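Q&A log
Question type: sequence-to-structure
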Amino acid sequence: MKSNSPNILFMICHDLGQYLGCYGYEDARTPNIDRFAREGMQFWKSFCCAPQCSPSRAGLWTGRYPHANGVVGLAHYWFQNDLNPDEVHFSHMAAEAGYETVLFGIQHETPDPENRLGYDQIHPTKPAQEMANSVAEFLGARSENAPPFFLNIGTFEPHRPFPHEGVDPLPPEDMLIPAPLPDIPEVRESLSDFEASTVTVDTAFGVILEALDASPFAGNTLVIFTADHGIPFNRCKMSLYDRGLEVPFLMRGPGLPSGAQDHLHMISNIDVLPTLLDLIGLSHPPNLHGRSFAPLLKGQAYDPTHMIFAEMTYHTYYDPVRCVRTPKWKLIANFECAPEQMPSPDFQNNGKGYTETSIAMGLTGYHPPYELYDLEADPNELRNLADDEAFQDVLHELRLSLRNWMQQTGDPLLEGPVSQGAYRNRMQAFLQ
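Response status: OK
Response body:
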């Protein structure tokens, strides 16, 4: 490890999407995050590799797609998906390089973080503002002579049911409804609580930044703020539309540009791990799927990414979907006849308003085999061109690209239906 290796402070939120003032959401009260965006570098075309919590985070921290790293669905509760035994998490890589590795709050990649991840310390999940105080205490007590640190800070907020202790929600009637959501009372009420929950995240991030900036580590710390996937509404989270895949990606640190806005380059969170390795001077494992965008951060020659790939296999049930996105086109391949909108079984909590919103949006049918969207003409992905004769060449070309990606990354879906951890564990117990 180099003597001047930068510290890493990484904050990742549940379900936030790009619902921030700095991404154009005018009613989002996020002054601390917005200020941070102005101080560092902001990517506008930043996406996740999966529109659900565990698969997205597993892809981020292994640099490998969920269908390859084992986390094809949620890691908690009855779902029991987990990283493959030989998967290497960034926490392992950082620890081996001499970093002190600390997890504050939520991780969602494994049901067994104490044994499966490489953290020296794991602090329990607390409300965002309490957790921010714990991070501030860590920074305030740390010696300048201590080894570099990697802090992974995971907040539950703003996941449903949208906790917002100490924050007054905006009146539902004043909320600005983001496309393509319908203007109905259930959406307005949920947006009001969701926005208030984002305020708790922003306040917490402000406390952490203040503590860092007052510490001796401010000048040598790489700070990253992001989320796991899109906002928790219909046709967003649990879908491969852009509202389900878009995430904030904000960076600040030594050697990085200040006040930079990148509206051009597409990046995916599958690219984050190789980028971090480059920024701290570590070599890449040979099995990574992600591609470093460190040259872009340093103003060096960079070949833009022309295609972003994403996937979903399980959330509340089996719904295998894959997609490829270019700057202009999106192709979604639906491999099962599942409902257009995946519901939650907890309708009084996590699923509140989903039924009413689905009806208002006309999401009452089943997936077609293909969905093809012209993102320039139809950014909200409302007009499916897959059956239009005029676009069959485009569909064919993108289908080949998607199939090649699945083959190159070893997607087991090509060989037949994919099981998740719950099935395997229950079957093993059944056969004993």
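Response note: The chain has a mean pLDDT of 95.
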